[in-house]
Each structure stands twice: as C-alpha cells, then as structure tokens.
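Shipment paperwork, digital attachment
Item: protein structure file
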Amino acid sequence: MPGRFAIARLLGLSYSLRCVVFHDISPNESPFTKGMRVSITPSDFEAALKFLTRYYTPVRLQDVLDASEGRGLPPRPVLVTFDDGYASTMKWAAPLCGKLGVPAILFLNAAFLDNVGLAPDNLVCYVANLLGMEAVNAAARAIGRADIPELKSLAEVFSRFLPSISLPERRVFLDALTRLGGINERQLAEEAGLYLTRKQVGELAASGFEIGNHTYTHVHGRSLTAADFGQEIGRNKAELEALSRKKVRSFSLPYGSSADLTVDLVRNLQLSGHAAAFLSESVANPGGTDQFCFDRVSIHANKNEAFFFEIEVLPRLRAIRNRLSPGISFVRRARKKPFHSRLGRPHGGNRVATLDEVEPPV
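Attachment content:
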C-alpha cells in the first residue's frame, strides 16, 4: 500500500527503535520446540531479514547506546537479536546476516553451551510432546505443594507455574521430569545438539556478533533473590566475556515479560556493568525509552504484508492499549484474577504475572 508507513504513524508518531527477536531457525519443529512458537523456517527467516534490510536501517547495540547520549539514530532503525543460543544461529543466521550486512546480538545461557544439558523450556516441551501434559503435572506435584492447580498447556507452565516457584523447587521439578521420562539429560542433549558450542560463540563474537546475557540457566527474573544474582547474572556474564573476549553490555529477560523486570534485577544489572535490557512483549519503543526497558517483536510472519503488520501496526496498537491502562507504566493491566492468588508468590516476593500476561516462552 502506498504511504503505508505514514498511515501506520497515525497510530503513534513516536516509534524510535524497532527491535526484533528470533530463536530457532529450522525447516521443521522438533519435540524440543513444538508448541513454543520459537521456530522459524530458513526461508521465512531469509524473507524477514530481506524485508528488514529493504525498509529499515539495521543498527548495532553501540548505535543504540550512543543515541541515548544525543547522537541520534538513522531513519527507521532496527536492532536484530537472537535468544537462547540455538545451533541454528551458526548454520542459518550467521551466513545470512553476514551476507546482508545485518549486525545482531546473541543472548546466551552459558549453562547449556556445548550441549551438556537441556534448557528448562526444551526439556518441558520434549516431555510434554512425547508423554503428554500428565507427565508434566506429575513432575509439578513432585515439589510437594498442595496449592498447584492442574497445568493444561505449555503456556501455563512457562508463564504461570515456573515463575511462581523458587529456584530449588524448579530443580526438583526438572529432576522429576527427567526421572518420569526415563531421560538421561546429558546424553539426550548431546544427541539433539540444540545449542551452540563454546568455540562457535567465540567465532561468532570475532565475526562481529554482540554477545549478551540471558541468565545462566534461563530463569524468570521475578524468581531471583539477591543470593541468586551472582550465579545467574554475574557468572553468566563472566563466562560469556571469557568466551567472546569482549564486554557483555546487554541483558535479555528470559520469557520477555515486564513482570520479570524487578527493581532489584535492574539495580543488579546496572551495578554489574550492563547498559541495556530487553523485553519481548511486542510493544513499540517510543522516543526516550528507558535503556533497561527496550521491547522487542517476535517474528512469526512469512510475507511482507504480515511482517509490516507485526513490526509496525501491532506494536503501536499495544502501546496505545498500555497508555490507556491507568496506573500502569510498562506492565499490562490485570483484567483477571492474579495466578499467585491460587499458587502463592514466588520465592523472593516479587510480583507474579497475571492471567492476562500469558505468552509463549522466548
């Protein structure tokens, strides 16, 4: 449509930085990812990247940080990011980003590099796809709490159940999953080869990719206590810096919810040398956005018209919705009963997402 960007601006003039996030690039979903909406086919990924380079100006993290000091960004800037360190980043993303001249940030969990274990999302997904949700519910009951309701979907596991339990309880849950599924986690991880190796991380960093923090074991920010920050934030940052031989300056919240961006977490990020943090709620970033609250759009489309709607229209509409929600800054208004009223607050007392905040894991 001629003038489509001008029309989109009618929904909101200020959209200073587009940020997009990808995860796994694969021709087919595997049992480790099916149902999580984190996969995009290589052809759709190439189409998305070509769309971005045609209609936007790809920028680096440094450009974004410089803009906060008044240096400005180019027209329609877009920042490309990848979460979770899937091996497909090396196979598909790196060559195409290099070919099209697209800089990117890779947000990684050091605990799963070299495929020595499975990230919680992939383990839960694998058990649910092979054995059904009853096996997941049995593992949830293993933590020994009487107030846990039946989990009916993967979305409930990731957006309600996991952020509502402490990290020790999460370990009990994950151990129960492997036991009930008869899984040798390390062997399964090695066979699946889902994640990047440490050597590949070094190679990607040397080729120009920015390496970012994503917690050590992919945990919800609201579940972290002061005692957890050293392991999940500090250790991950240190290991990634050793691999990349560069400073880790940015942080992506696992699952992407603003409910996880607690005051304590932001303070720890600032004190530990991070300069920016990223959500994944697909909301437009207005001018003057807090550097610790950049939002990203998760790309699922496969045609230019759909890309435009995902990147330009829906984020503006969500921003309007959030502005019309009284008393809320960047957290969505709770229209339904908070899940924590039935399940209990997480360890550490941070706020829990409401039913209105359930989204696929990222």
